[in-house]
Amino acid sequence: MPFSLQPAGSPWAWAGAYAQQPSLANGTLAFVSGGDVRLARSPYSSSFPVTSGLGNELHPSLSPSASLLAYSATYSGERDLYLLPLSATSPPAGAAPPLRLTYGLHVSAVLSWSSPTSLLLTARSSSPARPGTTCYELSLPAAPEAHAEVEPLPLARCVEATPESPASGCRYFVRHTQGSQTYGYVGGTAPFLSLSCAASPLAPSLTRDYPGTSRSPHLYPFAGRAADVVLYLSDQREPGDPKPGYTNVWALLLSADNTEDSRVRITSTLCNELSISDLSVDQTSGDIVVRRGPDLHLISREEVLRVIGDPSTSDPPVSLLLRPSSPSDFSQLLPREIPAALSHVTSLDALSSSSPSSPLTSVLSLFFNATHAVSVKTDPSSPTAEVVLTLSHLRSGAESVLYPPSPGSTASGGLGSPVPGGAVTNGLQVAWSDTDGRVVVLDVAAGTLRRVETWAREFGELRFDGRYLLATFESRANGFSQIGIADATADPIAFNVATSPVGNSEAPVLLRGPSSSVSTVAFLSDRDVVSEVSSPWGSRAPNPHFKRRSRLFFIDVQPRDSKDYVRELGDEEPPPEDEEPGEEVPIDFGPPPTPPSSYSAFAASAYAAEQVPALDFSSLLSQTTDLTHLSFLTSNESPPGTSTLSLLDLSSYEITPVVEVLTCDVSSDRSQLICLLPPAAPPAADEILVLENTAAGMSLAGAKLASLDFTLPVNPKLEFMQMFGDGWRMLRDYFYDPEMHGVDWPAMFEKYLPYLSRVSVREELDDLFEHMSAELSALHVFVYGGEYRSPFTDARELRGHSIGSLCVDSSWNEEAGGYEINNMFETNPHFPTVDDQFRTNPLSPSFLKRSGQVGAEAGDVIVAIDNVDARSMPDLGFGLKGKTGSSVKVELLRGSSGERDSVVTKVISFAACDDIKYAAWEWRTRQQAQVLAAEAGLEGGIGYVHMRSMSGASAEDQFVRGYFEDVDKIGFVVDVRDNRGGSIDSWLLDVFSKKAWMWWQSRNANITNGGLGHDQRGAFMGSVVVLTNEHTASDGEGFSRGMKTLGLAKLVGTRTWGGGIWLSSDNRLVDGGLGASAPEVGTYNDEWGWGLGIENMGVEPDVVVDNDVKEEFGGRDRQLEKAIEVLRDMVLEKGEIQPNRPPGVKKVVDNIQQYHAQREAGFDSRFGVGTHLSSYNALHDSNMRHFFENSTVQAHLYRSGQIDKAGRVIDLDRNASKLHIIEKEFQNAERAEESRQKEEGEMRRRVQLKRNQALQKARREEKLIRMKEDRKIRQEIVLATREAQGLLVPSPSMGGKKKGTKKKAIAAA
């Protein structure tokens, strides 16, 4: 029996190479496996590595003759392009060291060879189009020390491209890509094939009619066919296919006029198989290689032509499975020891100082008691890496599973995925919360698991304090954090809400007296809010801002006269030390709150500790074991991320700082505090401070240092197995839909598990995760992070190899012997600094003028850097290696004068240069928007702001900088193209939802001259257009959907990315990376349902317009042009946005008088309510006869029409019509008189006007006569003077001057 180091079926059993990224040329196959590039020659039975560097090597591409190999690698810490000559021997090997071709270009991928001496690649773009990735063509240098010419293809946002076809002269390319892993994707960044021909100014699409994915185009050598044939990968389905999303090889046959003739599917991958990921075509033989999972398959030219020639055939092409033997030393799989570091510490616990064991554990566990520890860990016997609770002996190491009997999801009775760091213990019980929102308590002795009754929607920190389980959770009512306290000995266990939802309450600590009963609940609360903004009036419409500040609050549990109560101020006598603690008195929470009040009497009894000032508390930790002090943390402004550990004397309320820390925690038995020290703090950054939890022990003098001077053993193969199971389990437990979108998730584990044995590096595990997570058909699923091979372990060594930047677009000028500057990337001059960082080009005039130097301009040539001639540099970045942040001398050949000059400037990083390039595009687009607005007739200009992302303070700052500058304009363009997402959409929607309803005016200020304007400070009253494109992602899409749904704007552009399920990326694996980020928060509303119509599809704009890639490369922006056009139409439709002011100023006193008149008209002096008196007329009252016999009164009654000449009373009702006629006659007479007066006034005005006109005419004529007379006198004086001096005086018959007259006159004189 042959000797074997490993038993059969062990995780070490080698099942073959995990092949990726194949390249086939001239009978030679290159692929990536085990982190190296390997080569195999026909018949591809064995492969050999041709690279073995420590860098990460990807994207191999063989030249047509297979004599050269191009690939990307991170040998210098950044991904650049390398060229390796190959020998003709078998096995193949490198014929010389690899030649580095790029310096700081940040290569994304090597695509293919466009000729024997040039190749295509994708890298960071420096074109006038939006920053991003684009395609380049690199011409190989004639000699190693020569300069490689790198020119961008004139195709904006190109991510894949073929060489130009010899038959048609056209190039086939792809312009989109997206990093989220999903099947069946139809969102905005779904890639499609397009065509670029030199004779056409535009680049039309070819496969955009299919909404799914079409990518990886390759020209196919189809002999005898005049038109092109292009092979590509697509997830397009045919009738009868069971499920969308599985990728196959397709053939696109074109006609002679470069239009589509037909499409033929070459392969047939079904839903129970793996999708095809990679494709390569041998341009010599016509054979193709595809990758499915870790395997490569060879399809001969004959089989390809057979399927193309008979598209109706049901027989798929016969493929040859390539599994070349891959001998290796398996260095990536050797067990290794990793030095422990603070970054590995995720939980802390300690035993009392009397314990003989180390005060720290090296696993994720908690000390259960003095002899045992309880751990939440992955069960090594579970294939799906299920979580179990174990109990281990500290001395012997013996370990047993406490719970559950059968590991699995919470639905199957298992633990599911506990929240990281959420397990706590009190020595009798263990409690934790999980991703399903449960809080459970395990009684260790009884082995029973009980769920805590709660109504919280999300739990924060859990704490055990004796028998009580303390928790913080979000209130259902308003999202404020509240405190819950549960008696873990009760049955059932239920949380009592201990605080009111009037603010955030957190960090509860139970304070006890000598009898061990709880006397007081201490906690922090920010309910006493103090705004730093006193008024919304001012620039940028300041909103109330509440600085983080909390106060210490108490709730008395026991009466004040109880011996268990905390000593009050003035009590000098400590409790007797020999007093025996009595039986613990349970906390009485009182009756639950009754409607309409939502606050219990217990919560309402909280009061603030007035003697303790409001501080920037970060946490309360614990009462000291001697019952005299309370420990707490406060956040420091500097250095950021640090806190100060302090003690509060519970009798005098005096605060004593102890030490500056990163964080602190309390041991399970409350006897010690364990603190992580900041890097700058003594004694060392890899040691942990352990303090006794007493007033005397809380000092550095008595502290112990727990050293991390040990290593963590890692078996890579076992680690890959655990990470694969963890990644699968956490997707199951974190994904927002428990039904997993209808996917049989256990079946997916079984489907991909067999390929795990072939994984040897993290990149291959990533590939496996990408395939598995794509089955969920959800976006926001990303695979990144973790431990990858790096040539550097020291940051200083990495800095020495990093490439700096002068942030100019340059090209080699052979005549001048240097790098000619083509573009300086001009940014907004009004914002030289952004977020406290300079955002200016280090060679620009605005940057160098501060030091009295003359900046560079386009056309200048860089001929030397730090006295190193540019001719000796294969690339401009070569001269800037290791100089990021340093000052350099740059020698320039001035293009305007041809003189040689030098300047000293600072080298910046490529990340800073990328920021400058992006800012230059923003500034150029803003200026272009203003020009287009002026051409469209939008007087006064429009507002424009571009939002790079919706993430954090930088995004808020960017919006404020662009919005308030143009808040008074009639139109606004919010550009969220390429927005990376974030979480500030609700704030932006609030800003645009504000509408003014009241305007102001004073004697000298109103809305027309820049006065106070309206009451809604910062409200935009004009029309709004939101610009979107395929890279508008996540929260950028939420903002766009909200603006459209709320009727606040119209959307212009293209369909967005399609991320409608949000995430938090907290399902990390053991190496710190993500197996696959889980979309955790679903979104919905009544109109769109789940995903808001965004998920996997994107937001469809109101007006669809796309930029042509050729035009965009040249700087044209059709989307912006259309946005201005739509905005103009909206402005015209909306009309004037300012209100019409009332004609004239209505005095306030007039309003008051009108108000009083209305009140008097309705005045009623009747007595009682509802009393109706009979009508009364004094003229008919006989008792009043003597009063009306007075002649003066009768005369008045006659004049007022109440009696006639005979003294008879006139009946007004009966004579109403007569009175009406009389009244009308009076009115007509008044109108006639008014009309007569107007006519007379108009007549007088006209007469006066004619008089004025006649007077003005006479004055003009008189003035003209005087001018003529003055002119005649001046002419006579001039003639007399000339005659006196003997000058020739022209006669009137000469008709003017002639040439030479003046000279003759002077000669005669």
UniProtKB/TrEMBL annotation:
<feature type="compositionally biased region" description="Basic residues">
    <location>
        <begin position="1296"/>
        <end position="1309"/>
    </location>
</feature>
<dbReference type="InterPro" id="IPR028204">
    <property type="entry name" value="Tricorn_C1"/>
</dbReference>
<comment type="similarity">
    <text>Belongs to the peptidase S41B family.</text>
</comment>
<dbReference type="InterPro" id="IPR029045">
    <property type="entry name" value="ClpP/crotonase-like_dom_sf"/>
</dbReference>
<dbReference type="InterPro" id="IPR036034">
    <property type="entry name" value="PDZ_sf"/>
</dbReference>
<keyword id="KW-0378">Hydrolase</keyword>
<keyword id="KW-0720">Serine protease</keyword>
<keyword id="KW-0963">Cytoplasm</keyword>
<dbReference type="Pfam" id="PF03572">
    <property type="entry name" value="Peptidase_S41"/>
</dbReference>
<dbReference type="InterPro" id="IPR005151">
    <property type="entry name" value="Tail-specific_protease"/>
</dbReference>
<keyword id="KW-0645">Protease</keyword>
<feature type="coiled-coil region">
    <location>
        <begin position="1222"/>
        <end position="1271"/>
    </location>
</feature>
<protein>
    <recommendedName>
        <fullName>Tail specific protease domain-containing protein</fullName>
    </recommendedName>
</protein>
<dbReference type="Pfam" id="PF14684">
    <property type="entry name" value="Tricorn_C1"/>
</dbReference>
<dbReference type="InterPro" id="IPR012393">
    <property type="entry name" value="Tricorn_protease"/>
</dbReference>
<feature type="compositionally biased region" description="Acidic residues">
    <location>
        <begin position="570"/>
        <end position="586"/>
    </location>
</feature>
<feature type="domain" description="Tail specific protease">
    <location>
        <begin position="905"/>
        <end position="1106"/>
    </location>
</feature>
<feature type="region of interest" description="Disordered">
    <location>
        <begin position="566"/>
        <end position="594"/>
    </location>
</feature>
<feature type="region of interest" description="Disordered">
    <location>
        <begin position="1288"/>
        <end position="1309"/>
    </location>
</feature>
<keyword id="KW-0175">Coiled coil</keyword>
